[in-house]
Design goal:
Blueprint: H1 2-20, E1 41-51, H2 58-61, H3 74-78, E2 83-94, E3 98-108, E4 111-115, E5 137-159, E6 164-186, E7 192-217, E8 220-243, E9 253-276, E10 281-300, E11 307-312
Antiparallel strand pairs: 1-2, 2-3, 3-5, 4-5, 5-6, 6-7, 7-8, 8-9, 9-10, 10-11
Length: about 325
């Protein structure tokens, strides 16, 4: 019984020392969330973009039937070209941290392949069935994606501390995503056959997002931006295969379209520097940008005529 009392006293003593050891630290009080004072102003900006497209269905987007020489399309499917684009924007600031912003993204880049090889053109029409098994030689390929997006935003700037701020925004986006693929070649009988296809999505819908900034002082800071949209529009695709063997085009010209709902997600992460001058502030930033449109484009296989959907990112 005596040992049990000693143990209890020891535990109480340790608990007491753990609670009351040291001195009282400073009391942290939460800061106020504020908005900037009213200061009407304009701003304009331009960005250089260096982007590469990515897809979830490579075979569909490259129009490659099984009978085609897949090696010659490998660059289109898995490694489309990087290319330069731009973003232009303008804003009007009013009220206590409010702004109205319009911005436009534009990017397009054509990937070209030219070679002397063979591509087996599938039998598409009984009228020219003899052309179906003849190879192309001196063939050329051209794949051209293009992306345009226009955002209209109403924003509210909120300061959470001296260095932390978030700009919340809501508005709408219009997007147009277009792809074209062309191939042409001459077979052993000097028959020229041309293949052409394109896929277009046009959509419009609501968009929301937040631009988060954290400053380090002396004008430097980092930012992380995110946004999401839901676009409603039309997705269309068609393809044509024609030959000069008889002067009559092959009867393989098809088109397909439907009403589509396309969700879109985007994110940005970068470093920013703000130089304060008498006329105004100059912002310079560099970072990474990612956009993804879910099932935005449909592509039709040259050989089978079957359509497939793919994300465009």
């Amino acid at each position: 019984m005596l040992n049990l009392k000693k143990t209890a006293i020891a535990v109480l003593a340790l608990s007491s020392s753990a609670v009351f050891a040291g001195t009282m630290g400073p009391i942290c009080t939460p800061g106020n969330v504020t908005v900037p004072c009213e200061k009407p102003a304009w701003d304009f900006g331009g960005y250089a973009l260096y982007l590469q497209p990515a897809y979830t269905d490579y075979a569909g987007f490259a129009h490659t039937p099984v009978a085609f020489d897949g090696a010659n399309f490998r660059g289109f499917r898995s490694n489309p070209s990087w290319g330069w684009g731009f973003k232009l924007e303008g804003s009007y600031h009013f009220g206590t941290g409010n702004d109205f912003n319009v911005n436009w993204y534009h990017w397009n880049k054509t990937t070209r392949h030219a070679y002397v090889g063979s591509i087996i053109v599938p039998d598409l029409n009984a009228v020219d069935a003899d052309l179906g098994d003849l190879p192309f030689t001196d063939a050329a390929r051209r794949f051209g994606p293009r992306w345009d997006a226009v955002n209209i935003e109403f924003g509210q700037h909120v300061d959470f501390s001296e260095f932390d701020s978030i700009r919340f925004h809501a508005g709408a986006q219009y997007a147009r995503i277009k792809h074209t693929l062309n191939a042409a070649g001459t077979d052993a009988l000097l028959t020229t056959t041309a293949l052409a296809g394109h896929s277009v999505f046009n959509g419009f819908g609501p968009r929301i997002g937040a631009d988060m900034n954290y400053g380090f002082g002396n004008g430097f800071g980092i930012y992380g931006n995110g946004a999401a949209a839901v676009l409603v529009g039309n997705a269309n695709n068609n393809l044509n295969i024609a030959s000069n063997a008889t002067g009559i085009p092959l009867a393989y010209s098809t088109g397909y379209g439907n009403r589509s709902i396309v969700p879109e997600l985007e994110g940005k992460l970068g470093i920013k520097y703000t130089y304060c001058a008498a006329p105004g502030d100059l912002d310079l930033d560099v970072g990474y940008m990612w956009n993804n449109y879910f099932n935005a484009n449909q592509f039709r296989n040259f050989a089978t005529g079957v359509s497939s959907n793919t994300n465009f990112a």
